[in-house]
Amino acid sequence: MSAHSIDIHRVAKLARLELSDDEATHYAAQLHRVLDHMDTLAKLDLSGVEPTSHALPVYDVVRPDEARPGFSQQQALSNAPKSVLDQFQIPKVIE
Amino acid sequence: MSLTTLSLTELRQKLTTKEISAADLVRDVASSIEARNPVLGAYLTWDLDAALKEAESADLTQPLGGLPIAIKDNINVEGQPCTCGSKILAENYTAPYTATAIQNLRQAGAIPFGRLNMDEFAMGSSTENSALGVTRNPAALDRIPGGSSGGSASSVAGSIALAALGSDTGGSIRQPAALCGCVGMKPTYGRVSRFGLIAFASSLDQIGPITRSVADAALLTNHLCGFDPRDSTSLKESVPDFTAVLGRDIKGLRIGLPKEYFIDGLHPDVEASVRKGIAKLEALGAHIEEISLPHTEAGVATYYVLAPAEASANLARFDGVRYGHRSSSASDLMEHYLKSRSEGFGPEVKRRILLGTYVLSSGYYDAYYLQAQKARTLIRDDFTKAFEKVDVIVSPTSPTPAHKLGELTGDPLQAYLEDVFTIPANLAGLPAISVPCGTIAHEGANLPVGLQFITKALDEATLFQAAHAFEVG
């Protein structure tokens, strides 16, 4: 029995995924099993250890604020499933 | 005889002496694909006309002049598809720009030709998570080629590609290379630009070659690496000629065997092959000693917190607005997101997005994500300490030989645990290579085993030197 309880519907909504009830049960059970394994991390002595987000040092990268060639509007829209008036089209947001 | 079994160096000789033309070579590769891809399923698509056009103007004076190289289907080449093995990009997406790694290859004269199958968004170790087809292991057709770069390894081992590019986030170049019996190399994190590689876990992803020999891998790596201002994690380091070290002996080279890598879950025949390989290294004059990487066991848990967390953020871009699948049945914007993503992503991608979203969500961030980032520090420090004593670390690449298709699909955790030997190099950003290390007779098939070499960051030269000495020794 897993010590974890995931509100799978809440997580799915945060992730913008729609799950059927069967899928929700299935994924929740699998994730519980994975999270049980992740409890191995809780056994490590991590007091005073600095977190690593990149293996090698990462520096801020800056460049002069000058216009450079980029995508044309046409290129940017070339893969859009729906576009209208040279813009991306989405479902109506404001009534 | 097909040209596709020859090394890149041999083919370059034929091209420069005009024994064959670049177009001959492209046509030869294409006819191999047409003959054997229906069985192997390594390629998703290939555009012969475009490659022949590029062959016409190929600069044969360049180091890779006239060589067609096959590309994993998550690296953008302008005008070509780039599906990531996903339904979400299989429609409505043609790459509008070209990855830096591909530009570098082209600059060296190579021709990107053919798109290779993969686990969806590089999530998996079997290529069974592709939404677009089954890829088979040339060594045993009822078995997985490994993954996620399974198409790359299958095409190279099956001689329907001369060489291929893959990407490696937790072993996705090295493990399929090991299971198919070819060479797979992951450079130091930051050596190869990630610009144009569709992101899975940005702090771990790295492009690298899959080839039939260490020499071919060294040659390709020469022309993949280099600083790129379009990747903020690209390293401003000079790139040595990695082929210069080929042929140097390894007398006195200090090789460490991490005791934590020779564990219960390691298949006994794989271990026997690897031990034989180690004996060969010793016979070649290397000094072998046992070392300890004490936090190895935490690697899988660390990786499966950090990589899904990064993936859940990276894959938020697939919203059905700018590119990719868009649901036709949504009535408002929220429904549009939910349905477009749920219809487009497959089960493993959904599983990892859910896991990543959970470990980053309020109340769990400290317990999982922050803990994993700290564990990553310990894993990296293990390597730093080990490399004070040894030059190279050697281990099995995968704990098991290739599974049968369908054998592991029911149990994600079991599949994740098999990444135990490849994950640490990604977490520590280190270069690593898998080299063929014999075959084992297993359930009526002869299955390849891979030997993994790891060195400290930016020391690919020693990596290639040791791997080449092992390969030819």
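qc> The longest strand of chain A covers residues 83-84.
qc> done
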